[in-house]
């Protein structure tokens, strides 16, 4: 009987120890579950950035060893602690207008690249304005630009919609146009107004789409004492592209599109 009582006491003590250990383990597990998750940039990752549009994307006017704004932007992005590597895929083509870009976006290679992109950057619109000049050299009137502006807005919306249909999550950046036209058409006082109107349309279009951003650059070329245009007085030079890249980077960071 005494032996049985002794064994019973040992068993109860053992059960008590197990309960205490389980209680401690439960508290420990609960403490682990309450720890905050690591930040999104804890493990740097690769980003795919697709550039589409006109000669500013192609990099016309920059030194041979540079490719427009892309090398500068790539260097800036890869300094971010959340970015391991920024891979740029360049589909820029000199002379492209919005109608050209709409067609090129439907090419299988361009579509496939956008589908896997984290970010899409566009430069478009400058050649649309130049086309109005070419079509109306003998009678330039601001109402001709207003009519073309409506067509530009329609095509720009089609471009945004097509990109978004390929990729619902990628950020979309539209770089604005600037005014080099005054070099040839100094007698047209409305040129600044025309460029401002087209940039306004671009900004409003970008704002109507999720995860989209308009980046103005006209003030960079208007208010800067540096020589920022190439020898053709139309395209940016290497320094001009560097400043465009800085503006894109600053606004990308502020908008947290990456």
TrEMBL record:
<dbReference type="InterPro" id="IPR013830">
    <property type="entry name" value="SGNH_hydro"/>
</dbReference>
<feature type="domain" description="SGNH hydrolase-type esterase">
    <location>
        <begin position="52"/>
        <end position="243"/>
    </location>
</feature>
<dbReference type="InterPro" id="IPR051532">
    <property type="entry name" value="Ester_Hydrolysis_Enzymes"/>
</dbReference>
<keyword id="KW-0732">Signal</keyword>
<dbReference type="Pfam" id="PF13472">
    <property type="entry name" value="Lipase_GDSL_2"/>
</dbReference>
<protein>
    <submittedName>
        <fullName>SGNH/GDSL hydrolase family protein</fullName>
    </submittedName>
</protein>
<feature type="signal peptide">
    <location>
        <begin position="1"/>
        <end position="21"/>
    </location>
</feature>
<dbReference type="GO" id="GO:0016787">
    <property type="term" value="F:hydrolase activity"/>
</dbReference>
<keyword id="KW-0378">Hydrolase</keyword>
<dbReference type="InterPro" id="IPR036514">
    <property type="entry name" value="SGNH_hydro_sf"/>
</dbReference>
